[in-house]
Automatic annotation (TrEMBL):
InterPro entries: TPR_IFT80_172_dom. Residues 148-279 form the IFT80/172/WDR35 TPR domain. SUPFAM superfamilies: Tricorn protease domain 2. GO terms for biological process: intraciliary transport. It comes from Pyramimonas obovata. This is IFT80/172/WDR35 TPR domain-containing protein. Its main location: other. Keywords: Cell projection, Cilium, Developmental protein, Repeat, TPR repeat, WD repeat. It is found in: Cell projection, Cilium.
Amino acid sequence: ATINHEAKVDWLELNTRGTHLLFRDKKRQLHLYNLAKQERTTMLHYCSYVQWVPQSDVVVAQNRGNLCVWYSIDNPDKVTVFPIKGEVEDIERSKGRTEVVVDEGINTVSYQLDESLIDFGTAVDEKDYERAVDILEPLELTPETEALWQQLSTLALADAQLPIAERCYAALGDVGKAKFLRKVNKAALAHAQALEAQGLPPSESCVVQAKLEMLHKRFKSAEMVLLENGHVDDAISMYKDMQQWDSAVMVADQTKHQEAEGLRRQHNQWLMETGQEEQAGVVKERDGDHMGAISLYLKGGLPGKAASV
């Protein structure tokens, strides 16, 4: 990667996984560069000290009278701040403890970091998502732990660890996504036996793949997955559930579905019930029912549009 930066850099270091680069310039500005996303974030101004916590993705830095700790490097806006009266000298890790050593002139003071949050990073690095959940579950939901739950949910979805992702969204209080993933997990279990016979994990089910596309709001991709595997009714139901009736009717027409006309009637009824006479008129006009369109435009108080049909 090539990073354009105007000021001279006086310190830089990669994390142990080689995914993020920290660097500080002569203006004492601390920056983070995400190598995968090719994105740079300014994390801190007036930075006099910065260091990765050894064997972790945790960052410790000093900004004047503040000791700043980032437990989730993927969420640089989530930072834990301790007021201090001296200068950070070192980070020490031994016997299950991590401490930041601060020289206050007369005394040397140590600030203990949260070992659970540091261990979480190790568990994630090893893709031990069960252990990562076990680390987070006893902890209170704070901005720091919330960021870690979000990080874990993203990683779990990317690695098709769907039960883990469901637990993450439940912990975050995202009821909608947690319920949706529960349905996905049930679908995965329903197809598990047939897929295992082929040597495939349950997450490879086309229904599961389609539902994951829906979760990411990639509905056209979900439609393609379902239609390619003959799940026409599921594709139509997906659009009906979202009240995207135009798309449901389009799928029915493309596949010559026997319920295409019934869907048109349901669509028209829904538009009328929700007071969308103009849109109902557009549908009628598109289908060649000009008299029906004129009637609906007039009912909707659009005589000009009725006259143009």
